[in-house]
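## Example pair
The file below holds two records. Each record gives the amino-acid sequence first, followed by its structure token line.
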Amino acid sequence: MDPYSLKKLNEYRRTRRAATLLTDLEDGRDRVVAEGDQVAGELGEHIAKAFRSGKSGSVEADGHSYFLNVHLPPPRLVIIGAVHISQALAPMAKIAGFDVHIIDPRTAFASDDRFPDVRLDAEWPEVVLKDNPLDPYSAVAAVTHDPKIDDFPLKAALESGCFYVGALGSRKTHAKRVERLTEAGLTPEVISRINAPIGLDIGAASPQEIAVAVLAQVIQALRTRGLESKRGEVA
């Protein structure tokens, strides 16, 4: 590997930015492509697909053979609210490969007994997220039903470009949420990125079923990053 490529990869790892080491299998030359960099033709399509899947491998593109070595930051799931849904969601998300972080200032809910083996902060989200900023490889699920707790991390998630933003609540509850976020300066286009009601529509009723629906929607969002804009271009 070229020393310059190694330096760039290490920098991207440090800043939680996805990158692919692109090696030409014919001449051995390599370069680093960060997610979002423009690469034309078939090769660009292969690289975009690799970023979505997280899988490395060899590809044929534009008459050349390449090896794509994909480096993705570990995906994070930040759950706002130490509630019953969170108790089911946290262990499932860990099994699925997510770094799980639960935030809830209500100490009666945010206890180690209720959430063993999970990072848990019994603090206000604005305090925790100041030292643990969100990024495009973070997902945020707000499930407290309390705007005093949920609104700040939802706004922070939208402004940080999180790959998934979801919020628990009825359509009436969400309509009021939209009003508050609009007053806070967010545009309708940005606010529309919130998945509300949260989770895939599978008819979930119990907290455990809702957790399954939420995790499925989070995984779907992770593996389809960037496809929304492509659909819009085709339309």
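Second record, same layout:
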Amino acid sequence: MKLKDKVAVVTGGARGIGLAIVQRYLAEGAGVAVADIDEVAIDEALASLEAELGEEVRSRLMGVRLDVCDRASIAEMVEAVTGRFGGIDILVNNAAVFDMAPVLEVTEASYDKQFNVNVKGLFFTLQAVAKSMVDRGQSGKIINMSSQAGRRGEALVSMYCASKAAVISLTQSCGLGLIKHGINVNGIAPGVVDTPMWEEVDALFARYENRPLGEKKRLVGEAVPYGRMGRPEDHAGAAVFLASDDSDYVVAQTLNVDGGNWMS
């Protein structure tokens, strides 16, 4: 019960890594707001969480629609969560999008979408939640989800890599800027993770690298030193650590959780 009586917001919390973190936070005693742009997915996530963890979690769980590209939506989310739970102690900035193309084929629309969600949306969500923490005179924990793609370049994934590198940089700057308020900002950099999104990623690699469907996913899984792709639940422990009192002296760091894919 490392997070007992804490209140967390998990963006992109209705599926994948976000949902795994929500499950673990509930198990650790937190109240959790599942913030997602997809209201149907929110309803499905809440139903599955209650079925798995029991009706007891209903009093500690809420869903809230959030479009991180819309600052009014961000403000409404903060107001809704603070209205329900009294405040926010933990933010997990998990919402993100992915696209890929050769450098000569990257479109402005693809660039804008990835940076608007992965960087701009992440920052202004962080800013709004941090302001609410400061206004209440409380400390807090903010966790930004980056990626191993933010540690290096990839020929077909230039914009996604750049957006996730920006997340690491923002984690450093915001970590330094907010620790004086008692707010720890840190990050997690997953490697290749077996989520439904990887079916789309695999299809794009099949298109641009002329591979059969499924081959890229198999190859990247085999290349992980641990011996397999990551699973959403593999990231929940790090998310609990960075949200708990155990990480009070950890500031502006991005933790690689990738089975040994990247060392930094």
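Notes on the second record: The chain has a mean pLDDT of 97. Residues 45 and 167 are 26 Å apart (CA to CA).
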